[in-house]
Here is the input.
Amino acid sequence: MTSRLKKIIVIFGSSRFSKMDNMKMFSLFFVLLLFASCQPKWDYLDLVGDWNTVSWVIDDSNERIENQMDFSFKQDKTYKIDYGTIVERGKYWLETDYLVTVEEGQYEKKVKILNLTRDSFEFRMNRAGRYETVLLVK
Here is the structure.
């Protein structure tokens, strides 16, 4: 055991703190840890803007998909996806490693965010039972 850990154990085990104080400290630590783990890993402000698809690949076969799928994310947490012939609109939010979208009148969908910066966005989605990776740029 390190000396720092021994000091912590001694402090919490000393008579300076009652068992109730120890429980309060442990509860506070647990709540802070829980709160920190629920925060999105990515900043939704990096998502805001217009995105164009530069790569869309089926993971297991490396087959490239050449369909249009351009995104627009607004700061008010609404989005639009332009598929060329169809436009999808709805609301979005981030949940830890996931982008969650809910098309108007539909159910929510999640994609796993692999990377998100101010000018590139890469995610993996499960479409019809197959994983696909999409890379977008602003």
The first strand starts at residue 49 and ends at 58. Residues 3-38 form one domain. The chain has three helices and eight strands. The CA atoms of residues 10 and 16 lie 10 Å apart.
